[in-house]
Amino acid sequence: MSGLDFLTTRLETALGWGRKYSLFHYPFITACCGMEYMSAACAHFDIDRFGAGLTRFSPRQADLLLVVGTVTHKLAPVLKTVYDQMLEPKWVIAFGACAVSGGIYQNYAVVQGIDRVIPVDVYIPGCPPRPEMVLDGLVKLQDKIQHQKQDWRWAKKP
Amino acid sequence: METRIQREARPESMLINMGPSHPAMHGTIRVMLELDAERILNAEVEVGYLHRGFEKTCENKTYFNLLPYTDRLNYVSPLINNLGYAMTMEKMLGVGVP
Amino acid sequence: MGKETLIEEIRTKLGEAVEGVSESFGDPVLTVRPGSLLSIMVALRAAPFDYAVLLDLTGVDFTAGEGRFELVYHLYSLSRNVRLRLKTSLPAADPVADSITGLWKNADWLEREVFDMFGVLFTGHPDLRRLLTYEGFEGHPLRKAYPWRLAQPRIPMKDKV
User: Fold this and answer.
1) What is the CATH number of the domain that holds A134?
2) Is there a domain that residue A9 lies in?
3) Distance of residue C114 Cα from the nearest chain A Cα, in angstroms
């Protein structure tokens, strides 16, 4: 029934619009990139104008996990626990070279990229990335959220 | 696995874990607190969550290669770390700076 | 007490426990035997040397060339503004040293770090366990025999997609 397709498309657009402009993020800050996160979140390079300004201090209330800084093997189970505690729908941004691929630390102690532990949606490289790059990555994530498809098989009769 | 603070805690106090990831602390450190309704009676600290193997990396690189690593040792004061490292190298190698 | 008289005092007071005295970039360096380490530290902490601060305690792995571990202590005297470096050599097969936690409280964590990184055991330490690595980590990372990139993940890592 073509009418249903039209409705589901409009509904997906509305859902995407709602989700992308009200991202609650949980900043999992470990190291130097935390400085760039703070400068991106504060007044000069505002992330609040993209709707993502509210920092929730608990993973159960957040939908965006910002992994900022180096993740070591000692910290990896903690990251997995935090990711598991978040509710669907959830997205992950790997912020900084150390989160993307281990950065300049290629040794026994550092996880070579957090996508070995949790699935990642957007990678923001840089050591540390400029705040403008952070905002660009956030906008790319918003594009991804807008175009995510929902599963409508429950509504469409076979 | 019982920690020292669990063994030594008084039965009427509350044990709270400020885990490695929390926004109040600057960086990752695990502090296990024994509380009596907001007064801290005892605390145990666990570190090492940001141990990035800097000394082992130093063994495998040259003096000049290590300059970016010293920046990131204490990221709140990167230039001081660089300065300390550069001055140490100059002192050890005996080079004068114009 | 200036630097010149300091070395004289050390030679007279501490005697044959000190193996060698040298100078390095303006700071005196003592080489001592591991057996007499604790007694020398007690003497250095007290007057007239008065080394009130233990700045650092690290180790060096010379097992490849000379077959020993070296412990390096940095002491600082607040009243006289003078630093001192102390070195001891431990055998590579069984590195054991005395703990100086009774004299300086910060030696607690410094010795835990040396134990973690090099495997040097400190007798008399109240709670010797790993500091920077985690439970289940095998080996001592800063030894030259430990490979630089050998990671021991705590949870299974996914292959890079």
Assistant:
1) 3.40.50.12280
2) no
3) 17
Chain B: list its partners (3+ Cβ pairs within 8 Å): A, C
Facing residues of B91 across strands?
Answer: none
Q: C57: how many CB neighbours lie within 10 A of its CB? A: 22
Say whether pTM exceeds 0.90. no
- Kindly tell me the sign of the dihedral angle through the C-alpha atoms of C88, C143, C64, B69: negative
Q: CB distance from A108 to chain C under 8 Å?
A: yes
Question: Which chain A residues are Cβ-neighbours of C134 within 8 angstroms?
Answer: 73-74
Question: Is the CB of A73 less than 8 angstroms away from the CB of C158?
Answer: no
Identify the domain containing residue A74 by its residue range. Answer: 23-147
Q: Helices C3-14 and C37-45 meet at what angle, rounded to 10?
A: 130
C61 → chain B, closest CA residue? B59
Verify whether the Cβ–Cβ distance A108 to C141 is below 8 Å: yes
Distance, in Å, from the CA atom of A88 to the CA atom of A60, rounded to the nearest integer, reads: 10
Q: Which domains does chain C have, with CATH numbers?
A: 3-123 (3.30.460.80)
Which chains would you list as touching A if contact means 3+ CB atom pairs under 8 Å?
B, C
Give pLDDT tens digits for A100-148.
Answer: 998 899 988 899 999 899 999 999 999 889 999 999 999 999 999 999 8
Least CA distance to C153: which residue of chain A? A73
- Residues C74-122: tens digit of each pLDDT: 999 888 888 889 899 888 888 899 999 988 989 999 999 999 999 999 9
Q: Which residue of A has its CA nearest to C152?
A: A108
- ipTM of predicted assembly, 2 dp: 0.84
Counting the structural domains of chain A, the total is: 1
Of B66, B29, B75, which Cα lies nearest the Cα of A127? B75
